[in-house]
Amino acid sequence: MHSLQCVLQVQRSLMWGPMASVSWLSLRMCMAHSSLSSTTCPNPERQEVGARKDFSSRLATGPTLQHFLRSASAPQEKLSSEVEDPPPYLTMDELLGRQRKVYLETYGCQMNVNDTEIAWSILQKSGYLRTSNLQEADVILLVTCSIREKAEQTIWNRLHQLKALKTRRLRSRVPLRIGILGCMAERLKEEILNREKMVDVLAGPDAYRDLPRLLAVAESGQQAANVLLSLDETYADVMPVQTSPSATSAFVSIMRGCDNMCTYCIVPFTRGRERSRPVASILEEVRKLSDQGLKEVTLLGQNVNSFRDNSEVQFNNAVSTNLSRGFTTNYKTKQGGLRFAHLLDQVSRVDPEMRIRFTSPHPKDFPDEVLQLIHERDNICKQIHLPAQSGSSRVLEAMRRGYSREAYVELVHRIRESIPGVSLSSDFIAGFCGETEEDHIQTVSLLREVQYNMGFLFAYSMRQKTRAYHRLKDDVPEEVKLRRLEELITVFREEATKANQTSVGCTQLVLVEGLSKRSATDLCGRNDGNLKVIFPDAEMEDVNNPGLRVRAQPGDYVLVQITSASSQTLKGHVLCRTTLKDSSAYC
């Protein structure tokens, strides 16, 4: 049997100029000169031979290199009403899911949760069905994370587990397609296709619109990938499909990518440059979520508070961006556009009974007008995530964070003065390049000084492509990183417990999420500061219906008197069911 394999690859390096883009398209096609058999193509089903011959013949007269170059440079935003012509080598029918079942697994941050909902929205419109049963899936898609080596290793392990399932499917002649989506697909590209031949599809964070085409190609038994990074893709016209019908909250992506280029961070290389959704499309999505009865929305972005909507020409003036006092950027100051304070103001007006949160911000983007707005609006949660990463000014400079320890502490004081009772959370990295024991001690002291309510702490994991990878040395031994991490965690828990214990005896508004995972007789919810609150599932008064006794349901606001606190959880007893508006008289 003689076969010909043709490989089309288009690859451009990452540039930060007017033509900035990363495109890497890999389409592997197997074309036989004579009859096809299971030795030349992965799929053993004889009835598909004719279809593959037809596919190969259409491919031979299909797209050229210029076709893909034009596609790579074309704007990614589409109107929801647009219906694109299929590529020359596929028919419209082949792009349809034909009720094949998709199983989605999500790993990593909240952005990946939102990406999963976007990907499913696109596939659902193409005729795919969703399944929660891995065994009956025709397509398995893993939405992946690359922020640390451990996150990637989790995916490699998962692929190893799925290998046996795919092998069994080949024997039963029921094909199974496996796809890697998100940051890991973007970062590792060829390594995934070459190391794991079982992977059929790769789709980067900006290529989810292309999933129907990629899966259609994979149905012919070939590997297909699109990891193009876009300058303008925000999926503004794609309405995410909520994965949990009983959910009380939702994530709304308002911007994608990051321009900060912190030395340790892979995000600019896996998610590209910053670009923001139009304010109008965000408000439309929030209104729809409100109409569905959801009670909480979290605005998402890699640098969420650097939001800048440049879609309306009349707002593209020469007004420079206001930064937090004492903070700088690693890029030229941006001008014009509708900023985060404007968006937060508009979103908070959609539904006074809907809580508004946002993550993940950068400390540099907290001008006074944002703090004042959070203070004034009852439905904007009095909780701010303020990633410090280190308590040492020397390490912060090496990280290219754009602030010193002193500027950060001053911002903390200003936040607490502007928003009384605010809850603070933070991120910290233990053992960054060149971190000394004195640097570590300064980070410990910052934890004690600020006394965060919540924290996310990790040992440093060097990532290829980052500035640290090219310019710094990962010289802190692993055992030292882990020891320092344990010390940070211990101090954080001590201080968080002290901070949270100040809530004991207070009455707090809690949004009920459902039953507690540890007790069938308790309910669980979150307070304004995003802390988990546990309380007994008991009858209570409804303040809007005097004399009526009710039990709390997911999506209800209840008042809870706090009786105990730990570093992660509050406990109390429920007083009554209320509304966000009426709760201000009690809290």
Topology (SSEs and partners):
Layout: E1 3-11, E2 24-32, H1 49-60, H2 65-73, E3 101-106, H3 110-125, E4 129-130, E5 139-144, H4 149-172, E6 177-182, H5 183-188, H6 190-195, E7 201-203, H7 211-218, E8 224-226, E9 249-253, E10 255-256, H8 267-271, E11 275-276, H9 279-291, E12 296-300, E13 308-309, E14 338-339, H10 340-350, E15 355-359, H11 368-376, E16 383-385, H12 393-399, H13 405-418, E17 423-430, H14 437-450, E18 454-459, H15 467-471, H16 478-501, E19 507-515, E20 522-526, E21 532-536, E22 539-542, E23 545-551, E24 557-565, E25 569-578, H17 580-583
Parallel strand pairs: 3-4, 3-5, 5-6, 6-7, 7-8, 9-12, 12-15, 16-17, 17-18, 21-25, 22-25
Antiparallel strand pairs: 1-2, 2-8, 10-11, 13-14, 19-20, 19-24, 20-21, 22-23, 24-25
Helix pairs in contact: 9-10, 14-16
Q: Could you explain how this protein is built, in words?
A:
The protein is an alpha/beta fold and 587 residues long. The chain folds into three domains: 92-226, Rossmann fold, CATH 3.40.50; 249-312 and 339-502, Alpha-Beta Horseshoe (pyruvate-formate lyase- activating enzyme); 506-578, Nucleic acid-binding proteins (OB fold (Dihydrolipoamide Acetyltransferase, E2P)), CATH 2.40.50. The strands form six sheets. An eight-stranded mixed β-sheet has the order 1-2-8-7-6-5-3-4, sandwiched between helices. Strands 19-20-21-25-24 form a five-stranded mixed beta barrel. The chain has a three-stranded parallel β-sheet with strand order 9-12-15, sandwiched between helices. α7 links the parallel β7 (201-203) and β8. The protein is globular. The N and C termini lie far apart (78 Å).
